[in-house]
Amino acid sequence: MSIKTSLKLLVVDDTSVSRGLVCMSLDEIGFKNVDFCSSGEQAFDIATRQGVHIILCDQNMPGMSGLDLLKKLRMQKSTSRVGFILISGSLTKPLLEEARKWELNNFMPKPFNTAQLKSCLQTVTGPF
To answer: Quick one: fold of 3-125?
Structure first.
């Protein structure tokens, strides 16, 4: 079974256009098991109840930010090993340093293209 069909990915972004762009890129890459939601709270619920392998999450969302979600996931035994990619148009050095303390797997600046997203994912999964 291919990694593109076996991995469960979750796209988290409060903006439908951004969610759509990430999902379209994942589809172009060939990922088949992709879900999405619009908040960190929903993402945490999905991760704990259904399980996911990799979360691609926007940083700037109302309520729970991407970094807040990462911290909450890492503090739970059942979700502590979930792959996490932070996506943002305003990735700062202090933000990335804090995220790395919480074992961020990778990050993706906005805007991005499909090739950049594929490369970002491959640093987490290995070649596919």
So the answer is: Rossmann fold (3.40.50)
